[in-house]
Amino acid sequence: MYPDFTLIILDMSENEKNQGLQIELPQQVAQGEYANFAIITHGSSDFVVDFARVLPGVPKAQVCSRVILAPEHAKRLLGALQENIMRYEKEYGPIRIPNQEPRTIAPFDLSKGEA
To answer: Alpha carbon 14 to chain centroid distance?
Structure first.
């Protein structure tokens, strides 16, 4: 379904890297959660990303998933998202966001391929 992907290695020992990484995707997680709103907060040691759904006629947004990342992992995720957005736009054309000026998303050099 998704032929292009970026592997993000967050934290692995050298022994784990040499053995290869196996990823299990349980069926209840594979279904995914729809989110059209994200709230990002951070402290000195972590970033918290809450994904929520805002629906017409519903006065309260419901958080459907929370991801907590170390600062280094948040930066790796930012790079991987930027890389995938660039691939997407190369294949399908620019992603347009109404009422927003085009800007660079990542404030660092992504040409090194460190995702």
So the answer is: 25
Q: Name the one residue in this structure whose structure tokens are 């279904």.
A: 31
**CA separation for the pair 91, 84 (Å, rounded):** 11
- E strand residue ranges, 43-86: 47-53, 62-69
Name the DSSP class of 108: S
User: Both tokens of residue 83?
Assistant: 């890389």
> Which residue blocks in the chain are alpha helix, DSSP H?
14-19, 27-30, 71-92
Predicted model pTM: 0.70
pLDDT reported for residue 45: 97
Read off the pLDDT of residues 50-77 as tens digits, 9 standing for 90 and up: 999 999 999 999 999 999 999 999 999 9
Dist. CA 110–CA 88, nearest whole Å: 16
User: Whole-angstrom Cα distance, residue 92 to residue 69?
Assistant: 30
Give the rounded distance of the alpha carbon of 11 from its chain centre: 16
Q: Which residue has the tokens 């995707």?
A: 25
